[in-house]
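dumping this here so i dont lose it again. seq + smiles for adenosine-5'-triphosphate
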Amino acid sequence: MDGNVETQDTTGAPRRGLIGRLRRRSEAEDGAETDAQEPKKAKSLGPLKMVYAAAAKYPTQIALAFVALLITAGATLAIPAGFKMVIDRGFAEGGDPADIARWFRYLLMIVGVLAIGTALRFYFVSWIGERVVADIRLKVQQNLLRLAPGFYEENSPKEISSRMTSDTAIIEQVVGTTVSVALRNTLMAIGGTIYLFYLAPQMTLGLALVIPAIVIPITVFGRRLRTVSRTSQDRVADVGAMVTEVLSGMKIVQAFNQESREHARFGAAVERTFTIAKRRILIRAVMTSVIILMIFGSITLLMWRGAVGVAEGAISGGTIAAFVITGGLVAGAFGSLTEVYGDLLRGAGAASRLNELLNTQAVIAPPARPEKLPEPPRGALSFRNVTFRYPTRPETAALKDFTLEVEPGETVAIVGPSGAGKSTIFQLVERFYDPQAGTVRLDGVPLTKADPADIRERIAFVPQDGVLFSADARDNLRYGNWQADDEAIWEAARAANAERFIKELPDGLDTYLGESGTRLSGGQQQRIAIARALLRDAPILLLDEATSALDAESEQLVQQALDRLMADRTTLVIAHRLATVRKADRIVVLDEGRIVEQGTHTQLAKAGGLYARLASLQFAATEAA
Ligand SMILES: Nc1ncnc2c1ncn2[C@@H]1O[C@H](COP(=O)(O)OP(=O)(O)OP(=O)(O)O)[C@@H](O)[C@H]1O
């Protein structure tokens, strides 16, 4: 009756009053995800300040929501009064039909105001909730884009994405529901209690004893049920995990004749789920019976007391009706208020997790007065005595006293065993990290003195496996240069030997390349990445050659594309192919973060050192593939 739309549950059906709320809560216990992974609560409401600040930007909507809230609370309380009139005057024997109509019209008017007011309140309150969440998401993502890759090693993308979705959903719940529920129910509890005293002071005192007797056991049962439910969901998750494990390892299970053992193991997990579910349903069964007994029992007792009063002529039938309805509203309001604080703490927990993402400072940021890189770009790279440790692995240096001067236009192949530090060189050139000692320079300017965006503007990076986004072929190519028109795109595609297969795609450049480009072969993805780098047309090329073996024809197509890409550019290439090292102006051999040899392929092959060993193993293997 109070039009409690904000407590809408996942089924979309509004649940009203105390019974509705209880049902909603116990259904939530059965729900798959609702309480199973209940998010952590904060210790205080402090972090909600950020939510307040975000909402305060929309004073008009807040004012409108508040007005609607006042109107609906008033209209809700007016309903019992309306019923009182209708019952006492509208049902009076021998009454004038015109007089009866008046009271019913009055009641209808209240209902109309309540309906419209509730719709407006729901609209504005939810609007604010959604808008606040949208603003927070935008701000968080903007900050995330500024953070260096090191941050994502310590904070998993899965965790961050869960903050962006579930934590923001909790905030939405707080703004769009909890605050409104709290305000409305406080108004209803106060207003309702005053009205009850006005109607029947003695019966109200009786009710004051009954309400806690209803609310307290329900709250206690509710808590127990929530704990048991959580355990129950964990057990169900165990069953799920076991199914996945066995299914994905089915060949091993069967090859080792472990079917009966797996069945027994699964049986035990299923029985554990059943045992805990039995406890849950027992608590819920008892809880339901207690609720029915308490609520309907007290209504019956009140009516009984009222009936005696009516018989004695001390009280009217309409007053009894108004009293019962208002009593229900007030009890429901108190019931709701018991949940509000917990919900707010949960919201504060979510807000503090989002705050962390919002306030993380970028380690790699432009200096206050960035030094301009010389124009036109030359493409000279220099590493002087660079020592670098990854923040997550401070004990080992990925590069040790590394010195390398790369001349404009030179092609330097970097080879070395796995973990030697080859990719680390690229990370430092892009300035994803700053070395602990030594200096990296681009065209004579130390990277730390320039704006990272200016540095990256001058670099094209071709990763091992072409990183494609879920977009069409055109946008995947233009990622290197959004100004490129179709003519330029086709020219790059041609040079990258990608023209033919792109033309053969169902919609040419408009073809959607699917999640992570799964619709293209490895060689095709590499050629897209090469075309993208061609479009970028940067003076420095960082090329991480693919290790995956391609068939001879793709290999040749990729190689030709790479040759065109490397021409007239300073190129650092992590080389896995003999063809590449042969063509390089210089080969740098890296081991455990240090340069151990340098020279051309012929020189190094003759020297009989690490390169000669690697070449005979690694390149022979890839050439044979
Ligand atoms: N993000 C990281 N955090 C911590 N340590 C890292 C990280 N990336 C690389 N390392 C470590 O730094 C060292 C150098 O790694 P790097 O990736 O540069 O080697 P690599 O020569 O490119 O190897 P591969 O040929 O296997 O790709 C290794 O010991 C590696 O374990």
